Amino acid sequence: MNFEKYKELYRYSIENPEQFWAEQANEFLHWDSPFEKVLSGSFEKQDTRWFVGGKLNASYNCLDRHLKNKKDKPAIIWEGDDPAQSKIMTYGELYEEVSRFANVLKKQNIKKGDRVCIYLPMIPEIIISMLACARIGAIHSVVFGGFSADSLRTRILDSDCQLVITADEGVRGGKIIPLKKNADQAVNECRNVKKIIVVKRTGNSISWDDKRDVWYHDEMKKVDSNCVPEKMNSDDPFFILYTSGSTGKPKGVLHTTGGYLVFVATTFKYVFDCADEDIYWCTADLGWITGHSYILYGPLLNGATTLLFEGVPSYPNFSRYWEIIDKYSVNIFYTAPTAIRALRHEGDEWVNKTSRKSLKLLGTVGEPINPDVWKWYYDVVGQKKCPIVDTWWQTETGGILISPLPCTPLKPGSATFPFFGIVPEIIDEQGNVIKNNEAGKLVISKPWPGMMKTIYGDQKRFIETYFTEVPGKYLTGDRAHRDEENYFWIEGRNDDVIKVSGHRIGTGELESALISVPEISEAAVVPIPNEIKGQGIFAYVVIKPNVIPSDELKKKLNNHVREMIGPIATLENIQFVKALPKTRSGKIMRRILRKIAVGDVENLGDVSTLADSAVINDLIAQ
Ligand code: WTA
Questions:
Q1: C-beta 115 within 6 A of ligand 1
Q2: Using an 8 Å Cβ cutoff, are 450 and 397 in contact?
Q3: Is the C-beta atom of 393 inside 6 A of ligand 1?
Q4: Structural domains in the chain (count)
Q5: Does 523 contact ligand 1 (Cβ within 6 A)?
Q6: Residues 362-408: tens digit of each pLDDT
Q7: Of 230, 245, 276, at which residue does a domain stop?
Q8: pTM of this prediction exceeds 0.85
Q9: Alpha-carbon distance 399 to 262, whole Å?
Q10: How do residues 566-584 score in pLDDT, each as one tens digit?
């Protein structure tokens, strides 16, 4: 595709969305029953449905469909944390394993519509588990292996999962992660979890409950590999994935089957332009949406070879990513700005001692990429010959919404133009569409197939969060502007979501964790810039009158937050304060705290709504 063709097809896709998406649906997927209507309902009424009447199965589309021509083609290349460990699974082998494991799930009484929690490291069994759920119509809820037992428990309970799949332990950067131990702790308070299926990863000894726990490898021996895929309605729930919002507990983002699959298959094909013989590698974790859409579903729907890496970019040394690229002749490499920043920080020698000559295309996702970092990625990693696709999207959007295609003329730091069928707009405080290049709220004004269906069990919160502030349009929560040539520049979150190393954390979750410590009466959390992580967490804490502030207390707070949420939630800075700045109605003015945290005290903006202006002087004096 060239850029003129992109513009032409984009115009066609927004002028004839139903025709465009019907063509993609038929090109990329096998339908057991054809859909009767491409799109029904609207954003105004909150009743959009895609490919109405169609029936299909995700695992059939990822596996069975490719058996005729690609049975012996590698589906997964697995590279272990230890460079000496690796494994290749062909489409034929993956099909066998998935069908077998689907039978294991059935034997455990898991049926269509049941929720299954997957808490696994980056090993082939995580993909097998997800596809096995999809095969029988069970809804998977993958929880990132770096989350704590507490976070795992709240997610299991919120979607009422009946079964948990985990491993004895995980291994990352040479360190052991006690997954089964966390799962035991989490499940102790989840009455509906009757079984835990455990994959043996390290073989170290773990605690075991004979009534509840079974080994994956034992169960796999007891079943055969014939499992007819369940024909799912296009609008049936497909998976739940938890993500943080600005308030309250994490939201269970629910995606449905047909729309999601069409969207990830199409975006994968066009954005990454993956040829049949290409080796594609996305470094995300399957616990996040990027892993779901662009390690698993997008690539396998397209019959591509996807690389699955268990480890971290710094182990055994900072050349690891580039060594893996050379080892497998990776052609397409998709990672996050935080990893690029960290590797750039270590110096060019780590990159330059590898060849990377196989690379054709680079991608980034998760945060804005600063132009300097972009240039380093382009010049040093890609040796000035690989376009960079800076892909903007969200857990909620299912797939990429704004991104260059490989043919797009690039500007470092800009996500450039919308994908086919996507109509983004920038809105000012009054709700008007901004036409010049001023910044405002980024909204999407027309439905697209990958859009989430609802927040699991909370349709009210879904509407309030995404469709109330700007009625009839999807509110992304991001701030952006568009330049004279219509390039989009995403500036970051416009709400109380913090992105630490690309991980999404809500200030509300952090504050709840802080105030559950007995010494604390109030807390407010704001982001501060961090050179490597993008953003860091700054906590303002009010302690109870009889408590003495100390470094020990700071340590205690940090440990507590990490234990409740997970190690990604490390507080970079904690400040004890007498009071928090609030409005007369009692709302914490985070806007002011954000400025004070970075020392920008000259530009606090309008402080006239403050209930007690003396609070500010106290904050600044510290
Ligand atoms: C941010 C990750 C700038 C954005 C797929 C969004 C980005 C949030 C980009 C969603 C990008 C993602 N440029 N910002 N290319 N990609 N973001 O749900 O703030 O983990 O709202 O999904 O990441 O994060 P999530």
A1: no
A2: yes
A3: yes
A4: 2
A5: no
A6: 999 999 999 999 999 999 999 999 999 999 999 999 999 999 999 99
A7: 230
A8: yes
A9: 10
A10: 999 999 999 999 999 998 8
